[in-house]
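Good morning,

Both structures are done.
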Amino acid sequence: MTEPPEPDAPAPPRPPVPQPVRVSWYLWIAACVVMVSGFGYSLADEPRVVSLMLEQPRDPRVTAAQVSAGVHASLWQFLVGAVVFALLFLLFAWKAQDGTRSARSVLTVLAGATIVFQAVIYPNWVKVAACALVVAATACLYLPGARPYFPKLPKR
């Protein structure tokens, strides 16, 4: 007959969150606010975006009203996408504060995707600032003071 499993020993206390990881958390928060603001700024600057789109070569069957409606819809979609990315940033940055190595990896991939989209989709100075904050927040997670906080998984 097998014995019931013994209760697990208490987990060893977590080391304190290193300064670079803590700084990264605040940079992620700032990046989220600035990124969403950048897409909000694009939405507020819709007439300029529409005029830029109308200057581009297009099919003559597409009217200015259709271009305007398409830009309006796409700006709202990008704003919603920015909010979703901001929530993902906050979720994984929170997990990174716990020392979760995979959260750091996910943040790195999300940062790369964000930089590409920020630079391609109606760039403005606010989005450039968001990119700078994203790069700084990601870099903090890889500083020498933060690396030991994200241990490698043991091999099976």
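Second structure follows.
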Amino acid sequence: MHGRFACTAIGFLALSAPAAAGDGFNQEACTFNGVALHGDIQVVDSFPDIKVQIVDSFPDLKVEIVDSFPEECGQWKMVESFPDIKIQYVDSFPDLKIEFVESFPGVP
């Protein structure tokens, strides 16, 4: 009886550990894996920090492209070098779904 309980407890802890780690998209902090979702963004074809899919509805993040001072959640300034975040556009299995907006960026 004691051994079965220990195995069950270990199995439960192993299954719950990834959720407790806090990896992935954090809506309250507007971060992905601890990286703030604003700043200088570079689009790459390989080795991205985040894979994003552009959607028209139900995004995880609304993104506004700005020319300067991308300091608020969802404000992205597109750059060719020295990015804060590297993204890759994908059609499936994204880390984050985004919708481009003209105003009111951030978490919907």
